[in-house]
Amino acid sequence: MLSLRAFSVRAATSIARLCLAIVLFAFPAVAQSNNSNYIFLLASGFLCDSGDTSTCPATAKGNQGDSYEMSGAGTFEAQNKSVKAAGTFTHKSPSGNVLEAGVWIANELVSFESYGVAPDALMRQGAAFGPGPFGPKRLPMLPGPVPTGGLAVLRIRLLPMRGPSSTAMLQVNCALGDVPRERSVEGIRLTVERNGSEFSEEVGGRVMFLAMRPEASAPVKTPQQEPVPDSAEPSSN
């Protein structure tokens, strides 16, 4: 039983790494896929700033003072509610001790409410996303994905390194676009279904949805130039 559990955790970890690799290093390929119309990043990749600990991981605190720290990435299709997402989590006590840690996998997209696109968000906030190959100078050049605000509700499975797995409802809120006043704080909320524990205080963490634009992948037609008339041939003697 223990070996089977360890295998499940290793498999889930591999899935989590695969999702992150797909989203962070293959934006154009994902953007051209017909199976998903949103990418989302949860406190990972270029959203993280090494000089600002409030960017990653995303943290939600409960009434008892304990908290969940989470990161991850994935894709989803809002119409048929399909989702492929995974990441890591750490459950900490009020004093900061680690109670459990492991990986999470999304089982279902319960709902998604879009706040609208914010095409200049990467340039406007890019300085906070950190240096390197995912810095602000390169991101706006990506074909297709456009930063979009919204609230996604996911049903996920928590797979700790030790102990039984459990299901939970994860709310992921990106405060871009036409944001409702009650959802102006960016971050996550979590409800663990086995005991009804709620972690509804968004402590920190950056979140972003990227909406696909299929028309952006179409080839751009360049206007044809008028042919330049040849110069008169010199007369023969």
The quaternary organization reads as single chain
Instruction: State the share of residues found in helices, binned by percent.
Output: 10-25%
Q: What is the strand tally?
A: 11
Summarize model confidence as the mean pLDDT: 76
Main sheet overview:
6 strands, antiparallel, barrel
Comma- or semicolon-separated keywords:
single chain, 237 residues, mainly beta, six-stranded antiparallel barrel, 3 helices, 11 strands, 14% helix, 39% strand, disordered N terminus
Report on this model:
The protein has 237 residues and is mainly beta. The chain has one domain (2-214). It contains three helices and eleven strands. A six-stranded antiparallel beta barrel has the order 1-3-4-5-6-11. It is globular. It starts with a helix and ends in a 26-residue tail after the last strand. Mean pLDDT is 76; it is low at 1-9, 22-35, 124-142 and 214-223.
How is this fold's topology laid out?
Layout: H1 2-25, H2 27-31, E1 38-42, E2 58-61, E3 67-77, E4 82-92, E5 98-117, H3 121-125, E6 146-160, E7 166-174, E8 187-192, E9 197-199, E10 201-204, E11 207-211
Antiparallel strand pairs: 1-3, 1-11, 2-3, 2-10, 3-4, 4-5, 5-6, 6-7, 6-11, 7-8, 8-9
In short:
It is built from three helices and eleven strands; from the N terminus they run H-H-E-E-E-E-E-H-E-E-E-E-E-E.
